[in-house]
Every structure is written in C-alpha cells, then in structure tokens.
Amino acid sequence: MMDKLFTVLVLIGVPISIIGSIFHWPAVIMFIVYCLTIVALASFIGKATESLAIVMGPRIGGLLNATFGNAVELIISIFALKAGLVSIVLASLTGSVLGNLLLVAGLSFFVGGLKFKRQSFDINEARHNAGLLIFAVIVAFVIPEVFTRTMNDRETMILSIGISITLIVLYLAALLFKFVTHRGVYQSEHHADLTKQDEEPEWGKGKALLVLTAATVAVAYVSEHLVDTFDVVGKTFGWSELFIGIIIVAIVGNAAEHASAVIMAYKNKMDVAVEIAVGSTLQVAMFVLPLLVLLSLLFTASMPLIFTWPELISMVTAVLLMIMLTNDGDSNWFDGLVLLAAYVIMGLGFYFV
Amino acid sequence: MMDKLFTVLVLIGVPISIIGSIFHWPAVIMFIVYCLTIVALASFIGKATESLAIVMGPRIGGLLNATFGNAVELIISIFALKAGLVSIVLASLTGSVLGNLLLVAGLSFFVGGLKFKRQSFDINEARHNAGLLIFAVIVAFVIPEVFTRTMNDRETMILSIGISITLIVLYLAALLFKFVTHRGVYQSEHHADLTKQDEEPEWGKGKALLVLTAATVAVAYVSEHLVDTFDVVGKTFGWSELFIGIIIVAIVGNAAEHASAVIMAYKNKMDVAVEIAVGSTLQVAMFVLPLLVLLSLLFTASMPLIFTWPELISMVTAVLLMIMLTNDGDSNWFDGLVLLAAYVIMGLGFYFV
Amino acid sequence: MMDKLFTVLVLIGVPISIIGSIFHWPAVIMFIVYCLTIVALASFIGKATESLAIVMGPRIGGLLNATFGNAVELIISIFALKAGLVSIVLASLTGSVLGNLLLVAGLSFFVGGLKFKRQSFDINEARHNAGLLIFAVIVAFVIPEVFTRTMNDRETMILSIGISITLIVLYLAALLFKFVTHRGVYQSEHHADLTKQDEEPEWGKGKALLVLTAATVAVAYVSEHLVDTFDVVGKTFGWSELFIGIIIVAIVGNAAEHASAVIMAYKNKMDVAVEIAVGSTLQVAMFVLPLLVLLSLLFTASMPLIFTWPELISMVTAVLLMIMLTNDGDSNWFDGLVLLAAYVIMGLGFYFV
Q: Cα-flanking dihedrals φ and ψ of residue B145, to 5°?
C-alpha cells in the first residue's frame, strides 16, 4: 500500500516539480511539492539499493547499503553547500543524527512495544555501535568546537580535514571489521537466524540499477530547487535556518527509511529496526558529514566541522540516552517514549533558538 | 529508638516553632529549631505514607509513595517560591538530587558494605532508572541552559513550561509502566521475594490519614517561617544562597528518608535502599521540580528551568558516577566511599562558589 | 633484545647527559639525548620495581607498583614545578592520561587483535576501574574548572588542596579494597590463573634496590636538565607548551611502560595490558597529580587543579570512550583502532591549539 502511494507521488511529483521550477511557482507551495517528491523518490532509491545488495552478496551489498543508504541526504547537502548554506547543511546532519537516534528508534521501540511486551536485539551489535557513536559524536564532533576557539580559519579547516579523513578511514575499517574480519564472530545464533530471512530481491539487477540511476537524477534535480525555497519558507513561517535544517530537511531526507524501521519493529524484527536507526546515524556521522567537509573544499564556502553548542549538546545527550537504553539488548514501549520525549524537548528548543 | 527521638522532637519542636515564630525569637536559633522539627515531622509523613501505601495495595500505594514521597520538599519550595527565592528553590532541588544520589546511596553502600562483603540489587531496575536519570538530568536540565542563552525571558519560560510538562507526562508514564503494564516483567525472582517482606502496615488507614494531614499542616507552618530565616542565617555564617539551598535545605528535607535508606542497607535490603535513593532523585527531577515550575506561574516570580553551570555539572557527573557504580547490580564499601568522596568535593565547591 | 637496547642507551646516554649539561651543548640535541636516556632509565626503574614487588609479596608489592609506577613522571614534574612551568606539568599529566587510555590501550588492543580474533580481560576489574575513572577525571577534574570561574586565587587553591587530599585518600582506600578487604573477591577463576604466571623475580632484593636507587638518581639529574631545554625546543619547532607537555613529555615518561603493555597484549595477557594502561591512568590522576598539587605549595608557583577546556574535554571523552569499549570485557583490533583514531584527533587538535 505504501509502495503504491510512493509510486503515485513520484508520477505526479516529478512532473509538477519540473514545471513548477521552470515557471517559478510560489516557493511555499513548491517547497511542499519538492519535499513530498523527495520522500517518495527516496523510497525507490532505498528499495533499489536493497535489491542490488541482495543480488551482489553480503559483502558488496553491505558496502552498497553503507554508501547509498543516505544518498538523498548527501545530494540535498551538496546542492545546499553549492548555494553556500553551510549552517543549514550542518543543521540537517544534526537533525539526521537526532531524527535517527530519537525519532526513528523511539517510534520503533514505542510502536513495537505496544504489540510486544519485550523486544530484544543483538547486544554485541549494540555495544559495538555504542563505541562508534561515542567516537564519532562525542570525540570527533566536540573536540573541534572546543579546540578551534582560539584558532584562525585556516587552522580550523586543517583540523576539520584531518578529523574528516580519520572518520572516513575508521568508517571503512568498521565495514572491514563487520563484513570481512569479524563477520558473524560476535553474532549470537538466535539473531543470525532472524537476519537471514527475506533474502529475495524485489527487483533484478538491471531494473534495480535503472531505478537507482533515474531516482538519483530526479532527487538531484528536485533538491537543487528545494534548496532555493528555504529562504522564502523560513521568512514565511518564521523558522530559523537551524530549525529548517534540523527538523524539516532531516525528516524529508529520512522519511522513507524511518517508515521501514517502524514497520520492522512492528514485525518484531528489532535487529533490522535498530540497524536502520543506529547504522544510519553512524553513516551520516562517519561518512556523509566528513565527505561533505572534504567536498566543500571544491566550493566557494568551505565547511568546517564546527557545530553550534545547542547542536552538540543535543547530539551528545541523544547518544548517551540511546546507549543507556539499548545496552541491555531489550526494548519496550517506555524506552521508546523516553526517546520520543527527548526529541520533543530538543524540537521545542530548536524552534525557539 | 529513632522513632521515639522523632516523637520527642515533634512534641517539643512544634510548640517552640509556633511560639518562636510569634514572638520573633532570634533567627539563627529558630533556624535550627525549624530544621530539626521538619526532620522529625518528615519521618511521620514518611511512615504514614508507607502505611497507607500498604493498605491501599501496590498500585495506588506506589502512586501515593510517588506523590507524597517528597511532600516536605515540595512544601518548603512552595513557600520559598512565594517569598521570591527562585535560586534557593533550584539549589535545594539540586541539593536533593546530589544528596540522594551521592550522600544517601553513598552512606547506604558504605554502611551496608562494612557488614556485608558484597551486596546485590535488581540490575534491571538499576538500568531502567539509569535511562530516566540520563533523560531527566542530562537531557531535560542541560538542554534549556544551553538553548536559552540567546532567548528572551518569555521564550525561556515557554521552553521551561514545555519541558516541565514533558517531564511530568513521562513520570506518569513511568508509573504506568512500572505498576501496570510491566509490573514484575523485569523483576528477577530472587529480588521479587526480597521486596515482598514487611508488608504489615504500622498504622491503620484512619490513623495514617490523620497523621499525614496533621504532619503536613505542621510542616507547612514551620516551612513558611524557616524560609524567612535564610537571609539572616546566610549573613551570619557567610553562606551563599546556593550553599543554603544545596546543602542545608536539601539535607533537612530528606534527612528522615536518608536514615531509613541506610538502615535498609544495613539490613542487606539493598533494593529498598537503592529505590529510596534513586527513586527519590527521579521524583524530585521529574515531578517535584517541573510541578514547581508550573506552580511558579501563580506567583510574582516565575521560575525557569535554568540551573547554574556548577549545579548542572554536579548533577550530570553525579548521575554518570551513580550509573557506572550501579550498572553491575552489586555494591561494596568502596563504591559507597567513591560516592561520598564526590559529595565532599561538590560540597567544598559549593561552599566557596 | 629490548633489554640490551635499553642497557646500551643508559651506558651511553647518562655520561653524554652529564657532559652535555656541564658544557652546555646545543639544547635541541641535548633534548633528544635526555629523552632517550630517560626512556631507558625508566625501563630499569620499572623492572626493579617489578622484581621488588614479587619478592615482597602481593600486598607490599602492589603498594610498591602503585607508588613507583609513575616515579619518572613524578620526578620530571617536580623539576618542572621548581622551574615554575605549571602549565607544562598539567599538560604532561593530561598527556599521560590520554597516552595511557588511548595510545597504550589502543596499541595493545590493535596489536593483540591482529594476532587473536577476540581477547578477553576481567570484566569486574574493568567496571571497578570505570567508576574510578569517572570519579577522578570527570568529577574531580571538571568540578574545579567550572566552580572556580568566580573564585579568587586563594579560594581556588583551597578547593584544589581539598580535592587533592580527597583523591589521595580515595586512592589509598582503593589499594586497601583491592589488596586487603576484597582481594580476589571479584576475580573470576580464569583470570586469577592468568595473572599468577611469571612470578619469578628477575633480580634479587639487593640488586633491585640498588638499580632502583641509581636509576632514580640518574632520572632526577637528567630531568632537571631536560626541563631547561623546553623553552628553546618549543621555539625551534614551533611547539606550544601544551603540545610539549601532552605529547612529548608524556610519551618520554611512559615509553617503557607502553612497550611492555603492548608486548603483554601480543602474548594474549590482556589483564596485564589493561592493568598497565588503566592502572597507570588512575595512578597519575589519583596520586601523582594531587601529590604534585600539594608539593607545589613548597615552591614559589603553586599549582591549582585547573586544566584548560581542551585538556578536560579530551580526558573526559577519552574516559567515556575507554569505558564503552572495555565494559564488555572483550577487545579486538577494531577497538584498538578506535582508541588510536581518538588519540590522532586529539594530537592534531593540541598541535594547532
């Protein structure tokens, strides 16, 4: 049913986006059209990546998921960077981290918990991810803010580049660890069984590649014009750049992924739901963000790895909360509610900041 | 024996408090009288609540404990708010959090550990509480301080109100989770047995209600006059408002509860001792404090949810320390000493700040 | 083989250090000579302490290790304090904490992990240490920075002295706990076996005492002259005091110890490797540093317990990362790489700060 909805949205959304962008239709209306269209396109990119991943086998498949999983966000961010909107890009990545850790995991735990009294997931995976979350968000994001206070712009960018390269190298090493050297080493039998289901690809290799290419091109086109509407939309609704980036862009870029995590939780496949929420967070923090820092060197406005304090405190506390709630490998509706409550508090904060 | 002492203290303290307040006896002497009287009255409120809780059954009993457990603090704080002493109220709630987490738990672990080599408590309960401590103290208290730096007073109060409502809703949800939907689900058999002892109420329903009402009225009377002595006492001893709130008011408001936690630890009933220390912390942070923020709207000086940095850092580090020491479900004298040492360091700090 | 190298280094390094210091040879060359000589001498102090510890039995042996384990650092720091280089001393202790937690543990996990797929260590010990790390680094180091912002110098020193005494008392209590009241209580059998090997002392009591005395005197002599070269070396290479302290002095003071931790990891004796890394961190934070604060009262420039924010954030995040990676009692090459990546990021930061 959701598939049909997304298909209709794409068939209507893409033409309207093209016509509207050419004839300069009102920005606020087009903003809504662009957002819905991207949400629908993202679901196609997700399904195509998944099908390809199954066809290609676990190793290359894992790599594909790890690279294309946040392709939509990467594309929107590149066009925002090109337009010089550095602080919106950083904010949207903050929003992606908060959205995945608090909103997606929170909804998954809550909705799953309404149906099942207790749901369990792989505790070794949760601990492995906890270490990476602390590394990426607490070490790699907080250090530059604190250290660069007395640095000039050049030193700040050099430090940002150094940290970005370290993050990407560690991200690649994490893939090597997970898919090659320690594949299955830490996986308990019970959970290994669960994740082996559903290995039938929806589309063949050719169709998947075609959809992936077409949807990616369409997302790129729509994103470029979406970015141009931020200015008018912000002024119309009284939203700050921080709020647009953290709440709006982050939700649009991740909506399809969010929906599938919640559906997995409802089917009691918590390992998949947690993998989507936390895996996606790590991908944004350790791959998409540092890649954007490096790509920004090609544009006029380079992007240092410096978040605002509200962004940093939100991400750090979200990480600590998530780690504390998941390190027993067990979730329930209340765990979900705690995460959602944290998202509400931060959302309120960013609205007024 | 302690019961007799408290009875004598009430029988002497209440009349002296009334006479002294009418004839304006010296503030420093009356400050000591008021403090001792409140400590004794609090023990009666505690016992009456406990008896009622047993009579009413576990669900309503749990709710009763969760509401009246910190009644004394709530009453003192309301009178302090009425007198416009906003920063003393916030400081006394900080003191209550620190006192419960470090002093009460520390003394319990230390005293219990002198008699028993290792003492154990319910690890699931400890983890559940750990998540709530991080949510309340780290997310809900740190976020407003960081976010409101650039906000005006009105926006600061709106954010404070929003967070307070979120905290109370989550506190009620936590009670629903603990007493209704997941009652006993996470409790190991061993610990379930332990907590089922001592189910005989000390007083009948009638007597308990009578004592509760009388003691509450008396606490209210004494608290109103206690608050008036802070100014003179602070100047006489050279204590700052922060120190009076954090160390003095917090200890007075919690002394009776503190004593019973330590006694429970000495009897090797660690689940009860930990429940008093951590449960009381959560009640203050998620119910008393946000309720006071909302009640403050009725008074001339409204109270935002903004702590000072020394208060925040103390609470955050106390929470992290407590979580780290309890997440193995095991305590000993050294764990207690670590918590007490942290309390000493913070006490020293607040004395000079 | 490494023993021979160190013997040669001492036989050549000590005479050159003496001659060079008398004839005022170029500072940069002498800086290198002094550093290498101290590294070699430290290995002799380490071996002598170890031999004595075995001869004297576990209790006094433990005490010996706990006191002389960081003797070299203590000596260098005393001479730096005497020369008024307060911020270099604090920086070198920060560097020692970071070096032990990230570089030593990181290299141990990484090198050990290249040979063994999974390596395990005592989880109870790891948790016990985690509590102390949070106490020492997060409570005792962060509190004074935040609280003293509004204090004058006298109040700052009083608070620093109070915290230092608390730290030393708790350190002694930790030794009492570990070697007397709870010796073996928390140790799993498997790990108790592992640590009982290699109980043959390399040197007899007499030779060990002689070597210890001679090497300590030599380290003292060389350290005194090493400190004098910092100024010229810093200017020549463009290194800040912070960088010299955190990276250079810390590595020199701990190099021998670092090497033996990595060797132990390669032999799959992870308990020993972790004990060296974390035990040494705790010794510096809870004994060497507070002792230096107290000793500084004898010199003209007294040293408060106030680190810079970059130092504090680095230590706090290093502690959180280490705790998260070790609280499962299991390590692998990737855990090591995460710690090393954090060290690289902080090293980059301190270079530019």
A: -60, -45
